[in-house]
Amino acid sequence: MAARSSGRPTSWRRRTARHIWLVIPLAVAWAAYRNRDAIVRAVSVIGHANWWWLGSAALAIGGVYLCRARVYAVPLRLLGYDPPLSFLWTTAIAATSVHQLLPAAGATGYAFLTYAFRQRGVPQGQASLVALIDTLSYAVTLAVLVVASLLYLAAGGVLDVRRVAIMFAPGAAAVALGAWVYRAQRDRRRFVRMVLRWKTRVASILGARWPDDPVRAFLDEYYEGKRLIGRRRQAFYQMIGLQLLAVVCDAIALYLTFVSVGVTPNVVAVLIGFVVSMSGAAVIGAPAGGGSFETIMAAFWVRHGVDAPHAIAAAVLYRLVAFWLPVAMTGIILWRLRRRGRSIA
User: Fold this and answer.
1) Which of these, 13, 87, 11, lies nearest to 341 by C-alpha position?
2) What is the pLDDT of residues 140-156, one digit of tens each?
3) 15 occurs within a structural domain
4) Are 118 and 345 a contacting pair, CB within 8 Å?
5) Which run of H or of E encompasses 324?
6) Distance between CA 171 and CA 154 in Å, rounded?
7) With contact defined as beta carbons under 8 Å apart, do 251 and 67 qualify?
8) How many domains does the chain have?
9) Fewest CB within a 10 Å sphere: which of 42, 90, 216, 250?
10) What are the tens digits of pLDDT across the range 274-300?
């Protein structure tokens, strides 16, 4: 009886965690219902979009994945591999699509990259290391862009000081936590013991049993990545530069999408709007965004003077070019990857 009673709340917690994301599509559906007239007009705007400009936006999205492919190449070459650019480009498309379809704090993209590199002959430990360094470079890039965007909005009077302070509060707490973790991880043995203790506590709360070996393996990869980055800091900065260039290509695609519906917004505002929408969707974490990306982007542009039908049309068309088109390609990429291509060693 004791085992059964302890299992029931755990089962309830798991079901709640599994289905809580359903709130997001419901909220998006409610917002769509309240703006149904604007959506109807947006459909007409989409029907009159200039497809030549949309094709140019698709080419810019191709540039996004080319930059990310070059990001993967940096640590792979440091480890002695010579990967073909075509393999890295298709891997970037599939990894990003999988990450957005099934967001899990970056875990799905990390896992897919590890799998893809293993399929091409890279040992599991090294494949995980490359994925870890890529995740770290992306996180640093995103943090820089988010902070810069908030400061820009505050300086322009879009956000008042109190709102910015509220928005920065979670970030400040995260920075404080990061500083504490950074100090703690200097002592490797003590840090590993601490992480294993916390892992055991969390598993106990969830009524699960998690082995120590995967945690130890991850921490080994972390410290190996730290050692590699410490020796080749210039290479890591190169990765961050490529990640920033990928965001610029994304912003260009967004700008071209607006041009396709007859709107020419401010260039800096396009970059800020993209970063805000991307960050909001990442925080929400619903599968495929759950419509949150389009909703946040349309709301941002309405606030910046674009009429609702054109803002909605541009957000939907951008999502079509930047997300759903790569997702359609991902099925073919996964099929080819399972055939296990030649080694890149």
Assistant:
1) 87
2) 788 788 777 777 766 66
3) no
4) no
5) none
6) 16
7) no
8) 1
9) 216
10) 887 777 666 666 665 667 778 888 888
Contact (Cβ atoms closer than 8 angstroms) between residue 274 and residue 295? no
* Closest CA relative to residue 239, chosen from 228, 250, 252: 228
Hey, what amino acid is at 198?
A: W
**Residue 52 predicted with pLDDT over 90:** yes
Q: What is the extent of the structural domain holding 248?
A: 2-7+25-338
pTM: 0.75
- Answer whether residue 14 is part of any domain: no
Residue 139 falls inside a structural domain: yes
Mean pLDDT (the chain, rounded) = 77
Instruction: Reply yes or no on whether the pLDDT at 253 is more than 90.
Output: yes
Which residues 6+ apart lie within 8 Å of 145 measured at CB?
Answer: 244, 247, 275
Token pair, residue 117, equals 């590199």
Residue 234 lies in a domain: yes
- DSSP-based three-state secondary structure for 313: helix
Treating both helix axes as pointing N-terminal to C-terminal, what angle do 308-319 and 233-260 enclose, rounded to 10 degrees?
130
Which band of pLDDT confidence, cut at 50, 70 and 90, is reported for residue 241? very high
Q: Residue 1 has what pLDDT?
A: 41
